Amino acid sequence: MSRPESLEKAIYTGNSMKGMFVPGEMLYLEERVFEMLQEGDVVAILSHTPHIVPRIIEKKTDYAITMGDNNDRPDATILSCETSLRLVTGAISLDGTFRSVKGGESGMEQFRRQQRKRLLHRVILNTMRPLRPLKSLRIPANREARFRDGTVQWCCGNIPVAARNSLGKTEYLGSWKRLFFRIPRSASKISAKSYPTRKDGRA
Predict the structure, then answer these.
(1) Which end of the chain is less packed: N or C, by CB atoms within 10 Å?
(2) What pLDDT, on the 0 to 100 scale, is given for residue 195?
(3) Sign of the Cα pseudo-torsion (146, 151, 156, 160, in order)
(4) Cα-based angle 108, 36, 23 (whole degrees, multiple of 5)
(5) Three-state DSSP class for 180?
(6) Whether the Cβ atoms of residue 149 and residue 195 lie closer than 8 Å to each other
(7) How far apart are CA 163 and CA 19, in angstroms?
């Protein structure tokens, strides 16, 4: 599927949609009237700066409830036909690959899948808590990729381990990677690989 270059764009930051997006990815936003939105759709709420990007988990005639795939509870803000928002229809990965963002029942299945992963992650962390003194044995990342928007990604060989967004927040790209890999203290001294500029002029 080709990239819809004419749509609005925004850089994703934060952690609420972990599993769906990675900090530094570019999101494509499309106008959509409130009545056409459905449960499972991912939306960008424009009334917040930076925009909040949650998923609609309950939709009624005159209101909708949202929640991040990686959050514990629904958002306090209730959406209505008066809310200024956009539908997120696509995203560009850090390597420049475009993918569509599905909503509806497919979106709800993604939401349920991520919630199950969060529960499993919590169980694993509690199980591994007694082994924390052994964390120094984790494999260090040996490659660093820097992007023009300020995002940094660390890899062990060809395995993406963690990413730091333009705001300086670092997140591991999967709970199991936190268990087996680590970002070395001298991460900034790792030889950096620069990705080619994207077609839209951003990286």
Answers:
(1) N
(2) 41
(3) negative
(4) 50
(5) helix
(6) no
(7) 13
Residue type at position 128: M
Place of tokens 């949650």: 54
Q: Which residues of the chain have pLDDT under 70?
A: 1-6, 128-136, 186-203
Give me the DSSP letters along 90-155: EEE-TTS-EEE---HHHHHHHHHHHHHHHHHHHHHHHHHGGGGGGGGGSEEP-EEEE-TTS-EEEE
Distances (CA, A) of 17 to 21, 63, 73, 126, 199: 6, 21, 13, 23, 25
Q: What is the pTM of this model?
A: 0.63
Which residue matches tokens 């270059």? 5
For the 8-118 domain, the top CATH level (class) is: mainly beta
Query: What is the DSSP code (8-state) at residue 53?
Result: -
Residue with tokens 């900090």: 23
| Domain chopping of the chain, boundaries | 8-118, 138-192
Alpha-carbon distance 90 to 39, whole Å? 17
Instruction: Using DSSP bridges, classify how beta strands 55-59 and 64-67 pair: parallel, antiparallel or unpaired.
Output: antiparallel
Cα separation of 154 and 104, whole Å?
Answer: 33
Contact 1, 61 (CB under 8 A): no
Q: How many residues does the chain have?
A: 203
pLDDT number for residue 132: 61
CB neighbours of residue 44 within 10 Å: 22
